[in-house]
Design goal:
The protein has 497 residues and is an alpha+beta fold. The chain has two domains: 5-253, ATPase, nucleotide binding domain (Nucleotidyltransferase, domain 5), CATH 3.30.420; 307-436 and 471-496, Nucleotidyltransferase, domain 5, CATH 3.30.420.40. The protein is built from 17 helices and 23 strands. It has helices at residues 53-71, 112-121, 124-131, 139-149, 151-154, 163-172, 179-184, 197-203, 225-231, 245-252, 311-320, 328-336, 377-401, 420-430, 441-452, 459-462, 479-496; strands at 5-11, 16-22, 28-34, 50-51, 78-85, 91-93, 103-104, 159-161, 176-177, 188-189, 194-195, 212-213, 217-222, 238-244, 261-265, 269-275, 287-290, 301-307, 346-350, 364-368, 408-412, 433-437, 468-472. The protein has a seven-stranded mixed sheet. Strands 3-2-1-5-14-13 form a six-stranded mixed sheet, sandwiched between helices.
Length: 497
């Protein structure tokens, strides 16, 4: 019997990852990512963050080449392709499908004033009831900045797209997008189930800039001859699934139904819960987007709490604070000897751009409570991880106010969830049980492609082999210590807001 494999790409801000999944066993047979060190983020000014889309394409090619070499799988054996990608980025192409400028990515803050003005001018109630969010710092506001500040370039734009749309375009030569993608960019009107004409009109965007809309699970396009020759794939291979990294992470953990929660803690940190009814936060501190299985007939909305300063803070601590040459595991060992609350040292972790949970304030990262005679590197290392967890809990309180029940958190055993300190603190402060699974975004994207291509009947069949690796229960005996440390952190945060 001929083997068939599913290919998943995950276009992150740190790297592009590729995985091959055996369609029958559901097991990942090979995975790779490039670059091996974190990809550069260009910041010409404070608060800016850009990446060259060509870099994503090159890293995707390198990742694919490695997994095909490692596994011995040929292009003929790859039957479907899925794509996960960093959300809220802006890619602009001309009529020849050439990229006009570097992508303005998710953690870039320059568009905040454009989103805030639209929120005020169009009225809060209209934006929230139609978009489920403030235009904030999302893709539409980033395009407004380009229109205002780079008018000559803007006039050359043929289509705007998200990072995942760009990768699909490079694979196929076809430009399209999804409802889930448009919703994360603030281009989708949930009340009328169409492109948000009122926001497009407000910013002066022509409707032709929006690509054709295709279902999330469907044959969206196929691999072109040109791309097939460049990548070693089979021409005509279907690209059958695409979603932003957070809806995709939820999919990877088989989180599809109301009340189910998924979390990640990579460069940024996320708690993502599914709602079955249209709802939103009045201050747009957490955001509501179309989940991968959302339809006009059956609402499935993802409530997204995003904290920009998570893994990127831990990486900064490793480079600049931790003893030279040690890795993340050694950092965890170092911090484990420090008591809960880090003997009074607190880290506010918001040093990676404007934070939506703080109503788009850009307050930076701060370290407080240091006593030169008492505290050392280990205290700062622990306080940084605690600060990341506390920022999660701060946002989860908002989600609970919206009616979200957070008793169980599903997560992949990766990134910050590899840290026992991080896991125990999150369980301890939130009171939630954490379940860790053997999956990641690129594997999820591959299985999503299997659903979209009709290889699997539904999500339950696609994720039947999902393996639970570990369960972390909250330490009830130390609940008060965790709570006290969190309240101290929250008090400091509120003083700075």
């Amino acid at each position: 019997m001929k083997k068939e494999y599913l290919l998943g790409f995950d276009v992150g801000s740190s790297s592009v990852k590729a995985s091959l999944v055996d369609s029958v066993s559901g097991k990942c047979v090979a995975t790779a990512f490039y670059p091996e060190h974190e990809a550069p983020i260009i910041a010409y000014k404070l608060g800016w963050a850009e990446q060259d889309p060509q870099m994503w394409w090159e890293n995707a090619k390198l990742s694919l080449k490695k997994i095909m070499a490692d596994s011995g799988v040929t292009g003929e054996e790859i039957v479907a392709i899925g794509i996960s990608y960093q959300m809220h980025g802006l890619v602009c192409v001309d009529k020849e499908l050439n990229v006009l400028r570097p992508s303005i990515i998710w953690c870039d803050s320059r568009a905040v004033p454009y989103g805030e003005k639209a929120f005020a001018d169009l009225r809060q109630d209209k934006c929230l009831s139609h978009l489920l969010n403030s235009p904030g710092n999302f893709t539409a506001a980033k395009l407004a900045w380009v229109k205002d500040c780079e008018p000559e370039l803007y006039d050359k734009i043929f289509k705007v797209m998200l990072p995942g749309d760009y990768l699909a375009m490079r694979l196929s030569g076809t430009v399209n997008t999804t409802v889930s993608g448009l919703s994360e960019g603030m281009f989708w009107d949930f009340k009328n189930n169409k492109v948000a004409d009122f926001l497009m009109g407000y910013y002066g965007f022509d409707s032709s800039l929006i690509p054709d809309v295709v279902p999330t699970f469907s044959v969206q396009s196929v691999v072109s001859e040109e791309a097939a020759n460049e990548l070693g794939l089979k021409p005509g291979t279907p690209i059958s699934y695409r979603a932003g990294d957070q809806p995709n992470n939820a999919l990877s953990l088989n989180v599809f139904n109301p009340g189910e929660i998924a979390s990640t803690a990579g460069t940024s940190g996320v708690v993502y819960g599914v709602l079955g009814d249209v709802n939103y936060d009045n201050k747009s501190r957490v955001n509501t987007f179309a989940h991968v299985n959302h339809t006009a007939e059956q609402a499935r909305l993802g409530v997204l709490l995003c904290i920009n300063g998570t893994g990127i803070l831990n990486a900064w601590i490793r480079r600049n604070v931790a003893p030279d040459g040690i890795g993340y595991a050694e950092m965890n060992d170092l911090a484990a000897d420090i008591p809960i609350g880090s003997d009074g040292v607190c880290v506010i972790p918001f040093g990676n751009g404007a934070e939506r949970v703080l109503e788009n304030k850009e307050m930076g990262c701060s370290i407080s409570g240091i006593n030169f005679n008492k505290h050392g590197k280990a205290h700062i290392v622990r306080a940084a991880q605690e600060g990341i967890v506390f920022s999660f809990c701060y946002g989860m309180e908002i989600m609970q106010q919206m009616g979200m029940n957070i008793n169980k958190i599903h997560a992949g055993k990766a990134n910050m969830f590899l840290s026992p300190l991080f896991r125990d603190t999150l369980a301890g402060v939130s009171g939630a049980t954490i379940e860790l699974y053997d999956t990641d975004g690129s594997v999820g994207a591959a299985k999503g492609a299997g659903i979209g291509a009709g290889i699997y009947n539904d999500n339950n069949e696609a994720f039947a082999t999902l393996e639970k690796l570990q369960v972390i229960e909250p330490d009830v005996k130390r609940a008060e210590e965790y709570r006290s440390a969190y309240m101290h952190w929250k008090e400091l945060l509120n003083k700075n807001l």
